[in-house]
């Protein structure tokens, strides 16, 4: 393979679902990919195992209480850092040429921003970065000539569909959605949904937050905003189609009526590897599609009345400025509230809407202003939980 420059990777959120899948991809291609740093929030056990296996230069644990124990256990193996300060410090290592951000939530915004300022390409799973701060992130990435390589399967699909195409020929981006576990439930029944039911995604095995976001369809709303910033199209050019089999990961329609779709098994290793191997492709050990298993691929419209989060997200990006950041922050709080059994599934959109109604938006913002808005919105939404 000629075109792949060896990727020296800082893997943020290595103990999560995307983080672990990324390590599986990296292990398959030691000649092309190497891990320099790993980070976790509290999952010290997995972080220790990963450090012993991958021998990075350093690891970061966010929770300060676990720092001493981690430092003792990993002495002689690698350096140990703590907190957001630790993440930002390790990113400075000049040997890192790719930051893979698989943190969950708004906590991922600042590391993405810093990576860009340092001129490092970012393979981005952390969609919340673009949802909350897309305007700032894309502006700075352009200025610093940094590539933002999407890992989200839908955005990887769109990227693969438009490779070699002229942007002016794009008519529509069609984001596919599985519809989540409650697609066929009546509106009345959504009121009774339990944490356990919501955590059972029909097709994808993912972290808790994105699994709940998929169940409310907020995930698709976040992805509309992500696509808006990544592909610089008009909002009306982005459409959502429910495709319960999750085989087509998204599509692009061109002005001559031709539609390209990217397909594959629902395995995040595929888009992760594409972001790492681009502009080339590498062999991947994954399940390959067996068409005997699928006798039909179906499509339907999303029900915005039943799943108001999707409409809230569309309204937020239409309103622009800091509204999407507020929505994102309030969603995070509401999802946590639901996971902690403080609120019902159907309270999630209510908390988000109320937090947005209370907000006085900024049209343009600096990173500090954005983080302040995030913090304020989380505080406001947290008060609504009780
Ligand atoms: N999972 C998927 O298949 C998938 C698909 C598409 C997009 N994404 C996106 O990828 C991102 C990661 O998702 P995921 O499913 O991999 O999440 P996850 O399994 O919950 O993992 C999140 C990672 O971030 C770390 N983390 C959590 N809170 C943190 C904090 N406050 N400070 C520092 N680190 C923190 C976690 O550490 P601990 O383990 O110590 O808690 C873990 O390493 C999300 O933005 C999601 O929307 C995921």
- Oligomeric state of the chains? single chain
Distance between the termini: 56 Å
Largest sheet, in brief, is: 7 strands, parallel
* Spatial strand sequence of the major β-sheet: 4-3-2-1-5-6-7
Envelope shape: globular
Question: Helicity level, as a percent range?
Answer: 40-55%
Individual helix count? 15
Bound molecules: NADP nicotinamide-adenine-dinucleotide phosphate
Q: How large a portion of the residues is in β-strands, by DSSP E?
A: 15-25%
DSSP summary, beta strand count: 11
Please describe what this structure looks like.
With 386 residues, the chain is α/β, with parallel strands linked by helices. It contains 15 helices and eleven strands. It has helices at residues 17-28, 44-54, 67-73, 83-90, 109-117, 127-144, 153-162, 195-198, 208-216, 218-231, 269-277, 308-319, 323-339, 348-357, 367-384; strands at residues 7-12, 33-40, 58-61, 79-82, 98-101, 121-124, 148-150, 170-177, 238-242, 248-254, 259-263. The strands form two sheets. Strands 4-3-2-1-5-6-7 form a seven-stranded parallel beta sheet, sandwiched between helices. Helix 1 links the parallel strand 1 (7-12) and strand 2. Helix 5 (109-117) runs parallel beside helix 6 and helix 14 packs across helix 15 (367-384). It is globular, with a radius of gyration of 20 Å. The N and C termini lie far apart (56 Å). NADP nicotinamide-adenine-dinucleotide phosphate binds at residues 13-19, 40-43, 62, 102-104, 107, 125-128, 152, 204, 206-210, 268.
């Amino acid at each position: 393979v000629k075109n792949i420059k060896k990727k020296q990777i800082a893997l943020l959120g290595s103990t999560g679902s995307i983080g672990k899948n990324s390590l599986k991809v990296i292990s398959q291609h030691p000649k092309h990919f190497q891990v320099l740093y790993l980070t976790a929030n509290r999952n010290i056990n997995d972080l220790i195992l990963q450090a012993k296996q991958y021998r990075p230069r350093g690891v970061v644990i966010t929770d300060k209480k676990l720092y001493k124990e981690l430092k003792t256990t990993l002495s002689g193996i690698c350096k140990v850092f703590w907190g957001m300060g630790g993440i930002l410090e390790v990113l400075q290592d000049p040997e890192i040429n790719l930051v893979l951000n698989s943190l969950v939530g708004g906590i991922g915004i600042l590391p993405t921003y810093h990576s860009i300022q340092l001129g490092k390409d970012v393979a981005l799973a952390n969609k919340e970065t673009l949802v909350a701060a897309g305007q700032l992130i894309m502006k700075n990435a352009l200025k610093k000539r940094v590539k933002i390589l999407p890992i989200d399967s839908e955005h990887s699909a769109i990227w693969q569909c438009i490779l070699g195409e002229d942007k002016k020929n794009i008519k529509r981006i069609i984001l596919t959605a599985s519809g989540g576990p409650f697609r066929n439930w009546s509106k009345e029944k959504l009121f009774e949904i339990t944490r356990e039911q919501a955590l059972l995604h029909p097709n994808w095995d993912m972290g808790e937050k994105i699994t709940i976001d998929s169940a409310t369809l907020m995930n698709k709303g976040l992805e509309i905003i992500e696509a808006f910033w990544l592909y610089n199209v008009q909002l009306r050019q982005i459409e959502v189609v429910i495709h319960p089999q999750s085989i087509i990961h998204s599509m692009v329609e061109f002005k001559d009526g031709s539609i390209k779709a990217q397909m594959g098994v629902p395995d995040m290793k595929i888009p992760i590897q594409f972001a790492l191997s681009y502009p080339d492709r590498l062999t991947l050990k994954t399940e390959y599609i067996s068409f005997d298993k699928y006798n039909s691929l179906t499509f339907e419209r999303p029900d915005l009345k039943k799943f108001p989060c999707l409409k809230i997200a569309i309204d937020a990006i239409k309103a622009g400025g800091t509204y999407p950041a507020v929505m994102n922050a309030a969603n995070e709080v509401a999802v946590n509230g639901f996971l902690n059994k403080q609120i019902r599934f159907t309270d999630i959109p209510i908390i988000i809407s109320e937090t947005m109604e209370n907000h006085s938006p900024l049209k343009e913002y600096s990173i500090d202003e954005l983080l302040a808005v995030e913090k304020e919105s989380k505080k406001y939404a947290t008060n609504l939980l009780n």
